[in-house]
Amino acid sequence: MIEFFTRKEFAEAADFIRSHTEHEPTIGLILGTGLNPLAEEVQRANVIPYRDIPHFPVSTVEGHVGQLVIGELEGQEVLIMQGRAHYYEGYSPQHICLPIRVMQLLGINILIVTNAAGGLNPAFKAGDLMLITDHINLIGMAGLNPLRGPDDPELGPRFPEMSQAYDLELREMALQVADDLGFPLHQGVYICLAGPSFETPADLKFLRIIGADAVGMSTVPEVTVARHAGMRVLGISGISNVAIIEPTEERKATHEEVLEAGKLLVPKLTALLKGVVSLLANGGL
Ligand code: HPA
Questions:
Q1: What separation, in Å, do the N-terminal and C-terminal C-alpha atoms of the chain show?
Q2: Which residues are near ligand 1 (CB < 6 Å)?
Q3: DSSP category for residue 52
Q4: In this structure, is the dihedral angle defined by the CA atoms of residues 141, 245, 257 and 234, taken in order, positive or negative?
Q5: Which has the higher per-residue pLDDT, 243 or 151?
Q6: CA distance 276 to 285
Q7: Which of 37, 56, 100, 156 has a 20 to 30 Å separation from 106 between CA atoms?
Q8: What is the pLDDT of residue 255?
């Protein structure tokens, strides 16, 4: 297993993808757990399974299809990842983010990330959407930062700044689209844990106290690399379950519940992302 990937491996994956598509996308989307169906709306799609792409991490989790869908959405060329790999599956943080480096080499400059997350903010219900305004890189602080390793200045700076990881203009577009569609879009801070175990009640209290509104096991590594690569980022969490600080036999977080809520979230998320891509196609707000 390669410990640190380099531009050579990123380029091998990017060349493979280039040779399997006629499109030149500039927008990348990552669809999280249970959020796959948006990719079915892509026109003139080229579909590439992750297992065929050199070095690509393959997701082993139910709810992750594991393929790239490259084509047109709202008249805009996009590259969609239907599913992602996670740290808890055994991949290194850098390996999880290899697809972001590949996007960088392919010329993608806007990344839209989605995930299923547990709601910590008491105003959130399962089935709600949250616009990510900032994140807490809990796993990164503890040492699992995907930028750890040999420095390659061609890819980005050694010490990238993260003061506005989630692009203000893209956030304004998402809020405008949600308003036009007539559903609420919460705003808040996403916190990334390593997983795969869900949180204890004491964990949840701690996460809330330190300022998180939603908790999950993804997104932050990819956003860290995307910002390092100079991409503009939009992040949306689908609230698939709410934090249960006082658990009972009937009330506890399960993966089935996360997949069930995905079905509720998908129509809203699909409409929101199509609206944002359409705005981008027309030059923004
Ligand atoms: N905790 C952590 N990750 C999650 C959750 C949760 O409650 N829901 C979906 N992903």
A1: 45
A2: 116-118, 198-199, 215-217, 240-241, 253, 258
A3: G
A4: negative
A5: 151
A6: 10
A7: 37
A8: 67
- Where do the domains of the chain lie? 7-281
Inform me whether the pLDDT recorded for 274 exceeds 70. Answer: yes
Ligand 1 pocket mutation, candidates 136, 215, 218, 242, criterion most atoms within 8 A of CB: 215
Q: Name the one residue in this structure whose structure tokens are 């990719």.
A: 39
Considering the four listed CATH numbers 3.30.1540.10, 3.40.50.2300, 3.30.2390.10, 3.40.50.1580, the one that applies to the domain covering 7-281 is 3.40.50.1580
pLDDT exceeds 90 at position 28: yes
What is the H or E stretch that residue 160 is in? Answer: none
What is the reported pLDDT for 281? Answer: 86
Q: Report the alpha-carbon distance of residue 86 to residue 208 in Å, rounded.
A: 23
pLDDT of 143 above 90: no
Ligand 1 pocket mutation, candidates 121, 191, 199, criterion most atoms within 8 A of CB: 199
Ligand 1 centroid vs 217 CA: distance in angstroms? 7
Query: Separation of 154 CA from ligand 1 center, angstroms?
Result: 35
Q: What percent of the chain has pLDDT over 90?
A: 78
Q: Which two tokens stand for residue 190?
A: 């996403």
Q: How far apart are CA 44 and CA 22, in angstroms?
A: 9
What is the value of pTM for the model shown? 0.93
Q: In whole angstroms, give the CA distance from residue 105 to residue 11.
A: 7
**What average pLDDT does this structure show over 196-213?**
94
> How far is residue 116 CA from its own chain's centroid?
9
How many Å lie between the centroid of ligand 1 and the Cα of residue 270? 21
**What is the tens place of the pLDDT at every residue in 219-242?**
999 999 999 999 999 999 999 888
Predicted pLDDT of residue 36: 81
Q: For residue 273, how far is its CA from the centre of ligand 1 (angstroms)? A: 22
